[in-house]
UniProtKB/TrEMBL annotation:
Family annotation (Pfam families): HTH_38, MarR_2
Family annotation (InterPro entries): HTH_MarR-typ, IS30-like_HTH, Transposase-Integrase, WH-like_DNA-bd_sf, WH_DNA-bd_sf
Cellular component aspect of the GO annotation: cytosol
GO molecular function annotation: DNA-binding transcription factor activity; transposase activity
Positions with biased composition (Basic and acidic residues): 51-63
Organism: Amycolatopsis decaplanina DSM 44594
Region Disordered, annotated ranges: 41-79
A single GO BP: transposition
Domain Transposase IS30-like HTH per the UniProt entry, residue ranges: 5-45
Residues annotated as domain HTH marR-type: 103-158
Name under which the protein is recorded: MarR family transcriptional regulator
């Protein structure tokens, strides 16, 4: 069959025609095959006595059996919590499929899901490759994508590099989304100016910039709502301390990651209204909680001795 594998009859004919002195091109024409197929067949399957059909069939069969892949077994990861490994694996697969549906590449989604369902949220490239039964190169490409999207961090553990998903990951992803939307607003506004808002293309760009600006407003408002509690806790800690504190000192006292403290302080600084009469003041790498004197008139401040 042209284009398919050579059959035993094909090899018998090749051997016969070679003995008759026919060239590769003529044999290929008669069999309806590319000349390269015939030359490769003869080169690979010729023995000391030349090309023989029976020997060629035997060697080809042995080569095919050696190439037959072994069935892959997915390792069962012990979790120490008495969970059903099959149920965990099924959830991980479904979770990855959901992530793929949002637009991420499949391997990237599998790496993210695998890290997410690990209790420590920390795995090395070798561990990911073993769990997912893929090559280290596939892991490397997926990690690079996730890192660019702020979905994981790289850390060194001695000589090993490990990949981390921590509790600050949603905040980083949120911040990256806000930054991305800001770029959309900026570029779309430039397009509107270049094209002219009175033109159809310019009006389209103007609408696009307004849309992303509105999305950013909503996201920022939602972030304030989510992190308002943390901001108030950080302010309460500063008030109780009665002195300026660094992020690391606050993180130690509150038993929070430094990134969480920084996020809370950023919200408190950017949105002073959430803290009522108190605001955060930064200076010299430290933060203080001070009265929001802007709420008082000059006469009121004077009466209070300020």
């Amino acid at each position: 069959m042209p284009g398919g594998r050579l059959t035993q009859e094909d090899r018998r004919l090749i051997a016969t025609w070679l003995k008759d002195g026919l060239g590769y091109a003529e044999i290929a024409r008669r069999l309806g095959r590319p000349t390269s197929t015939i030359s490769r067949e003869v080169a690979r399957n010729s023995g000391h006595s030349g090309y023989r059909a029976e020997e060629a069939n035997r060697v080809t069969g042995e080569r095919a059996r050696r190439r037959k892949p072994r069935p892959r077994t997915v390792p069962v990861i012990e979790n120490g919590y008495g969970r059903d490994p099959e149920a965990v694996r099924a959830f991980e697969t479904g979770f990855a499929e959901m992530i793929v549906a949002t637009g991420l590449p499949r391997m990237t989604a599998r790496v993210l899901a695998c890290l997410s369902v690990s209790d420590e949220g920390v795995l090395t490239a070798a561990e990911l490759a073993q769990r997912l039964q893929v090559s280290p190169a596939s892991i490397s490409n997926a990690v690079a994508y996730l890192e660019a999207q702020a979905m994981l961090k790289r850390e060194r553990d001695g000589r090993r590099e490990q990949y981390v998903i921590d509790e600050e990951m949603p905040q980083r992803v949120w911040d990256e989304s806000v930054r991305s939307n800001q770029e959309w607003v900026k570029v779309a506004r430039q397009g509107a100016e270049v094209l002219g808002t009175s033109t159809p293309a310019g009006a389209r760009m103007d609408d696009l910039s307004r849309f992303h600006a509105r999305i950013n407003e909503i996201m920022l408002d939602d972030r304030v709502a989510v992190y308002a509690g943390d901001a108030l806790t950080a302010l309460a800690a500063l008030l109780h301390a009665g002195r300026a504190l660094s992020v690391s000192a606050l993180a130690t006292a509150l038993e929070w990651p430094s990134e969480r403290v920084s996020a809370a302080l950023r919200v408190a600084e950017a949105h002073p209204h959430i803290a009522g009469p108190v605001k955060v003041v930064a200076g010299g790498g430290e933060y203080r909680a001070v009265p929001l004197v802007e709420r008082l008139t000059a006469r009121q401040l004077a009466a209070l001795g300020s």
